[in-house]
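Write out this protein's structure.
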Amino acid sequence: MQERSTIAKVAGKVTQERLEKDMEKYRRMAIGFGAADAKIISSKDVLVDERTRFKCVTCGMYGKCAMCPPYTGTVEETRRTVEKYQAAVFILWRFSPEQFTTTDGRVSLLDARPMWNAMGKIESAAFYDGYYFAHGFGGGSCRLHLCGGADCVHPLIKPGGTCRFAVKSRPAMEGVGMGVFGMAANVGWGVYPIGQDCSPERVPAGSRMALVLVY
């Protein structure tokens, strides 16, 4: 993907023609980075559901990662913020079921760094195209996928600490209350829930998703 020769001037308003052209560029970037699929969606298609955040309380990362609840703000804050955007890129990554499960049925640690890298690159490209509020969201805890499960050293968790991946770390969609499974179903992606008692032969594929709100 060829970059602009110069950084774009920030504009107060963007024409629909320009927005559509840029959004298609970001969608193609995602595919170029190895995503199985990417969709351009309206911000109205970003589902925000209190039940998603409610389930985060049962996750082992709750309170242990600065990009996870309760540090990621409230569902209502997410809802109000998403409403200020118009468009987003929703990105799907596919993995074999074996990458999500072990032979005894336990969920394994999946190295999803390529997904986080692609999300960050697209957010950065949009920022330099003049969309200064562009913001990416990953899937799952960045403590697991960027730090390999090591203790979070963000100053919110460890006073005086410094995030190891300050440029790349972003909240997970589910961590801010986005209904990721519902969004995937609405765009036609076959996504399957994989839990602690799930063995590889029970599901066709594993999935991770990311989102970049652009404008």
